[in-house]
Write a structure and sequence with these properties.
- The structure holds 2 protein chains of 2 kinds.
- Chain A is α+β, with helices and mostly antiparallel strands.
- In chain A, 34% of the residues lie in helices and 13% in strands.
- In chain A, strands 2-1-5-3-4 form a 5-stranded mixed beta sheet.
- In chain A, strand 1 and strand 2 form a beta hairpin.
- Chain B is an alpha+beta fold.
- In chain B, 28% of the residues lie in helices and 18% in strands.
- Chain B is built from 12 helices and 11 strands.
- Chain B starts with a strand and ends with a helix.
- The chains are: A alpha+beta, B alpha+beta.
- The interface between A and B is large, with 53 and 48 residues.
- The structure holds FE2/S2 (inorganic) cluster (FES) (2 copies).
- One FE2/S2 (inorganic) cluster binds next to loops of chain A.
């Protein structure tokens, strides 16, 4: 096989290597699958009206569609990223009615009537959101893949501190939470950064929290 | 993911009736655990009943001085409630020790109680697992068992219950309010809510087919000092290897419950009489008859040391 004959996109390559990694980790054992799991079921479509960044979209969706897939594949809002698709990395974080959630672990059909905000709705290249400007200023990323999720998460997180919601590291449950680095790290633990830009991310968020941005 | 039909529930009773009537139906609330498992086809519901629209998202005082927590109250909101922070700090602490900010914003009180084990073999449809495919065998007995349970287990299953919140609920002796498919209501004491695996690890709770959790009621405040100490492989966003929930009174009496060691929150009221004797005596009684694997035997001394740290902190 000649390497020059193989033309794979980066995406296909990533998918392939993920699949082979899984197979290597766990060899298949015959008879482990439930008999019913293989039975085919017809897809079910349903109309869904989604309000994203202030715009209403009337869509016809497979009930299985995650909010993340609809944002990226149907509405072409590619800012929200898919890292793990299992609620483990935070790359897909968006704001729903002002609260941060993982868009990969929710069905689009469950969000009729909700106000959804993605990174594209938070700021624009001409008018950056203060968190976006602070991430640029502090170099709060390297590859940038986790960044939209980090920024949406930080926006939701600062609102949670503002609302007085305590965290695991708050010494006093009943006092107003502090804006310390320890609080920010704990509250942002649902957002992983493969490039390890954490120190600068904390600095960027601290700037905005303290009103320096 | 297998395809499914979808409906929004109109009332708790109608939801329960529909869930019992429609083959393969499941409730969905926060969805953070169910959708994860559906993507892997560990769960393959044919019909989802979305209960989010039901008005079960309130906290209300009870006439006996307790607090009723609606089944749909999100983990964030429960931990942030002023009454919970003041009167049930062990519950707030347990909630805040679990998951991430994003997940706590979505996860519900009932969903947290009903979340499924994170045993790697339950998640991997290529491996035998008695909980996922009854009769197929337990891969964990001879496999990766470090995070799993060592007491209350059986030869069929050593999966551990992953919830932090449920440990605090068990410590507080909460009650689980439900509505059944025939519209009748009942209150299940939390001690009877989660089942031990025995020969049927696929049955995890006392709920009947279609039965819907509507609320969790907390008893009147117990006073005392509240602790939730969780030991895990990293400082945040990880399941417990071991956790200790405790309420300690000035006279030396108290309550203790454990997470991470059993198929359900683990509490033995009889062991609590040993509290004045110290962590070792309590641990010996709590974990008497434990059958750890080589990989998770470390949890026995870890429970004792974690409880010891809690007792030392209480003595100031
Ligand atoms: S893609 Fe949603 S948490 Fe990783
Ligand atoms: S900047 Fe690369 S993953 Fe965070």
């Amino acid at each position: 096989m000649q390497a020059s004959n193989i033309k794979l996109s980066r995406r296909e390559l990533l998918v392939m290597s993920a699949a082979s990694a899984t197979m290597m980790a766990m060899p298949a054992v015959a008879g482990a699958q439930p008999a019913s799991a293989g039975r085919a079921r017809a897809p079910v479509n349903t109309p869904v009206a989604l309000r994203v960044n202030g715009h209403l979209h009337e869509l016809e969706l497979d009930t299985r569609s995650s909010l993340l897939d609809v944002l990226r594949e149907r509405l072409q809002l590619g800012g929200t990223k898919k890292g793990c698709d299992h609620g483990q990395c935070g790359a897909c974080t968006v704001l729903v009615n002002g609260r941060r959630i993982n868009a990969c672990l929710t069905l689009a059909v469950m969000h009729q009537g909700d106000e959804i905000t993605t990174i594209e709705g938070l700021g624009t290249p001409q008018r950056l959101h203060p968190l976006q400007a602070a991430f640029v200023r502090h170099d709060g990323y390297q590859c940038g893949y986790c960044t939209p999720g980090q920024i949406c998460s930080a926006a939701g997180m600062l609102a949670e501190i503002e609302a007085g919601i305590p965290s695991h590291v708050s010494a006093d449950l009943e006092a107003r939470p502090l804006l310390s680095a320890a609080e920010i790290r704990e509250r942002m633990s649902g957002n992983l950064c493969r490039c390890g830009a954490y120190a600068n991310i904390v600095d960027a968020i601290t700037d905005v929290a303290e009103g320096r941005a | 993911m297998k395809s499914f039909t979808y409906e929004k529930a109109q009332s708790p009773a109608e939801a329960a009736a529909a869930a019992a009537r429609i083959p393969g139906a499941r409730f969905i609330a926060g969805g953070t655990n169910l959708l994860d498992l559906m993507k892997l086809e560990v769960e393959t519901p044919a019909h989802l009943i979305d209960v989010n629209g039901l008005a079960l998202d309130r906290l209300e005082p009870l006439s006996d001085g307790g607090l009723r927590v609606g089944a749909l109250v999100r983990n964030t909101d429960l931990a942030a409630d002023a009454r919970v922070r003041r009167d049930y700090p062990v519950l707030a602490r347990a909630l805040l020790a679990g998951a991430s900010g994003q997940l706590r914003n979505k996860a519900t009180t009932a969903g947290n109680l009903l979340q499924r084990t994170r045993c790697a073999y339950f998640y991997d449809t290529n491996q035998p697992c008695n909980k996922r495919v009854p009769g197929s065998g337990c891969s964990a007995l001879e496999g990766l068992s470090r995070p799993l349970a060592l007491i209350g287990v059986s030869r069929a299953c050593i999966a551990s219950h992953p919830s932090d919140m449920a440990v605090a609920m068990r410590l507080l002796d909460a009650g689980v309010e439900t509505v059944k498919a025939d519209g009748s209501r009942r209150l299940i004491p939390i001690a009877d809510f989660h089942r031990l695996p025995g020969d049927t690890p696929q049955h995890e709770s006392a709920l009947a087919p279609g039965e819907l959790v509507t609320a969790v009621s907390l008893p009147p405040p117990l006073g005392g000092k509240h602790y939730y100490r969780k030991v895990r492989d990293r400082a945040s966003y990880a399941f417990a290897l071991v956790s200790v929930a405790a309420i300690l009174q000035p006279d030396g009496s108290g309550r203790v419950a454990l997470g991470g060691v059993a198929p359900r929150p683990w509490r033995l009221e009889s062991a609590e009489a040993a509290l004045p004797l110290g962590a070792r005596a309590v641990t010996e009684q709590l974990l008497a008859g434990a059958t750890p694997t080589q990989q998770n035997a470390f949890k026995i001394p870890l429970v004792q040391r974690t409880l010891s740290a809690v007792l030392a902190e209480a003595q100031g």
